[in-house]
């Protein structure tokens, strides 16, 4: 089976990552991350003072929001190669990716809207900013479950020659624990769990970045070893 | 092509340890469902009293008080951690529909509906409810807007579920492999009707057709919960009764005379 299509899709990931890194570094809201303790007036002042920077990244974010989807799609194909009894894990994975990507886009929209009309009532700008942070940091539930589905497909795979080395599955399980704290960011306005804190923000983004790098390597290896192996259509 | 390991010799009635169960992926997915639904129920009812729904015509102080409640925030946290299981519960439908003789278009329709529904019908409204409790001090009119947005999105999200129940119901009715019973197909089409019944919540602020009304909430919930329960009972039976030879990881046939495949598929 020709795996050229999968390889092409996988190689869209490095440029996508480069753009995400660029967006992160250039986004005024992230450098440094806006504190949840700011009053609505302070938030409004921030957005008024950074309109171009924020709108630029909001547009970029809008464009690249789904640019990691091909990597996830190739993962779904490799999950369906595992010798499990059904494609239930592939389905769950695909739905989780769709939902998670939408959450990211909504965050981007909220920041974009906050910067679009900076003379808006500060309460509304603060509300949009809160909403954006909630959508950006907190919804880890789908990434956790999608990684669990991937790990299960590796653990339950009955092939004598596994598609992925087992440690990739262990790594996915570890990410579940490392990402979970971010869900608690909606309870705190300061401290490590707040949306700008070391657990909810730094750990979450670092984990995600390392995860993409590891999966890229693992998927490339899996696709290159696929040979003539046929996949099960989901 | 990689060889699959030899299957253990089948002996009727021998209980294999659950770890060696060939359908483990399906069972894990299946059993996540009661866990998730019960968690959902606990979080929505006794924890946060989001359900049964507050009234759309509550007085403003009541709305503000509700939106500021700390339990609402905790409910959001729990759901944010657990909502990834909603896709798994949807995947359980999909894996049965895949076995049916109908076109993949049915399950793709359901998949797309599931993706849309999880966002507009669960994640988004959940955050609407969390915002007021996160930052007290928003004006009552903002809180009322969030309150409306939350309840309308939860109860008034119609189209994504319409397409899922229509595709699911039709698939069951048209299926020549009889994976799920035909009466379930008709019952599922009836679920589509509950979505139509929910449409007036966008208009009524009191009475039987408001989002907390007798018809749109209580009656519709009664139909929905019983359907949900029955559907998963049927799926349980379908998983259990699926012949091992049909599984994606079925052991290779021991005899040269191949087993007749009676399932049909279409494009």
Task: Provide structural commentary.
The complex is a heterodimer of chains A (234) and B (267). With 234 residues, chain A is mainly alpha-helical. Chain A is 68% helix and 0% strand. The longest helix of chain A has 29 residues. The model of chain A has no long low-confidence stretch (mean pLDDT 93). With 267 residues, chain B is an all-alpha fold. In chain B, 63% of the residues lie in helices and 0% in strands. Chain B has nine helices and no strands. The longest helix of chain B has 31 residues. Chain B is elongated, with a radius of gyration of 22 Å. Chain B starts with 23 loop residues before the first helix and ends in a 26-residue tail after the last helix. The interface between A and B is large, with 56 and 52 residues.
Offer a concise description of the structure.
Chain A is an all-alpha fold. Chain A has helices at residues 4-10, 13-26, 40-49, 51-64, 69-81, 88-116, 122-137, 141-155, 166-179, 198-224.
State the main characteristics.
heterodimer; A: 234 residues; mainly alpha; 68% helix; elongated; B: 9 helices; 0% strand
Can you lay out the helices and strands and say which pair or pack?
The complex is a heterodimer of chains A (234) and B (267).
Chain A: H1 4-10, H2 13-26, H3 40-49, H4 51-64, H5 69-81, H6 88-116, H7 122-137, H8 141-155, H9 166-179, H10 198-224
Chain B: H1 24-47, H2 60-67, H3 70-82, H4 85-98, H5 104-134, H6 140-156, H7 159-174, H8 182-198, H9 214-241
Helix pairs in contact in B: 1-3, 1-4, 2-6, 3-5, 4-5, 5-6, 5-7, 7-8, 8-9
